[in-house]
Predict the 3D structure of the following.
Amino acid sequence: MPKFGQQSLDRLSTCHSDLQDLFKEVVKYIDCSIIEGHRTTERQQELFEQGRTTPGKVVTYCDGITSKSNHQSTPSVAVDVAPYPIDWTDRERFFELAGFVQAFALGMNVKVQWGGHWKGKKQDLPHWELKP
């Protein structure tokens, strides 16, 4: 049975308890890694600069000050999760993971939104957040 490594557990511990409970169930059935939970303002700004003033692909539209990310709340109401082993080009595995997350969320009565369902924005396949 898959389980989270210590780094994933540490990252998950910065998230809302509903997200912690949800992903602790999901990982029992599909191997995944927690990429990021809570973000400081500095970390959010660093990610915002990526693809703009620093090398890399644009990964967020929230600058961390005028537009805050759900990752910035304490505890975080957003989490980034990827199927393990991580292959950022294998979209099919992200969709497979999403099916497990959505099924468990429904059964646990945890209301989540997946970044893979975003309309009008670039899809964010690792991103999960609690619905208000």
